[in-house]
Write a structure and sequence with these properties.
two-stranded antiparallel ribbon; Growth Hormone, Chain: A; 4 strands; mainly alpha; 2 domains
Amino acid sequence: MSKLLPKGHKKLLNAWAFYDWANSVYNLTISSAVFPIFWGALTIVRNDQGEIVNDTVRFLGYDFNNDSLISYVTALAFLTVSIISPLLSGIADYVGNKKNFLKFFCYLGALSCIGLYWFNLEHLWFGLLCYFLALIGFWASLVFYNSYLPDIAFPEQQDAISAKGYSLGYIGSVILLIINLVMILKYEWFGFESEGVPTRLSFVMVGIWWIGFSQYTYYYLPKGNKKDVLTKAVVFNGFKELKMIWKALQNDIRLRRYLSAFFVYSMAVQTIMLIATYFGIEELDWGEQNATTGLIISILLIQLVAVLGAYLTSKASSKFGNIQTLIVINFIWIGICVYAYTITTPFQFYVTAAIVGLVMGGIQALSRSTYSKLLPEDAIDTASYFSFYDVSEKIGIVIGMFSYGIIAQVTGSVRYSILFLILFFVVGLVLLFRVPKTK
């Protein structure tokens, strides 16, 4: 039985933030690090010299480029999330038992991660279904998790406790990733014959970690503050709010042009973040160096540098302005794409990862704060504006991932997909230049 604590209570705030510790292991291990490496090992056939002989996967009677297939499944999952998010937002605003919804999607995501243990090419549909449901469980649970913030914290507490959650998530995910990395690389220490079983066990550990540590959050979180009846109008309230914001944007040229720019360049940013590891697996010559170690080091490097990038970007925006800083960052992203097209060695990949981390943390933090600053001063329901922002970002991911997959499928190389992403940054730049200057 959960323990009821008053709003603003330290234990309640810490319990809420601790869900980040619980769920962030999915984002790092499944989205970014171990699963992409596992997928590459499962679907790529190499010769004795390490050259790729075959990277085609047969699924539902069709042959797919391995990168294309996983990008299509990822895009489909984000499309599903973008459709159900407004529904869930509407429910979260009115229903009296948000905790049950949070638990449902948490358990869906975590159990799906555990299901990845049985991922193999013979029953590919099951593995891809687990991957699909894990992504939905993670992102859908965040809708209810985020909606708790105004319920459990006073306005003056929200920034600090939100930042604490982010920090806990980073620390927890890195700890589990390091444990998994040791298990995979030093498998003989644990009595395994190869790195295959410990790799699969890392998916199980993500699910157990996610479910186990979230219990502390559930113990203190209230069921929900409101007790309104769940009606059809309530369920579709989120879509009504999105429609309302869309109409409001027609009369706000600054916000409309900025959101258009964000929508376009965010397609490329989010796609690069999701496919970076797949690119490293397929396009680099790792030689005698362990590719698993190198790729995970790159991911940790990106995360570490991203913190510095967010700080430096904040300083730059206060001196030169938000839009001007975003313009410079987009130019840097174009340079990254051009350079990434040419890289072949691990060292070049590390250099690229460091620069990506620097601008990744910056562009994400600055994009959201710029949007917040451009909101109308008389805006009553800022949550609706940010719901619109989140849905725009996810639809952008869908378009970016599908574009990436199609180019990789047609050309047979993900390098051309990276070049194609430059187009999104160029269009984003043009739209940023068109945002009217503000005081």
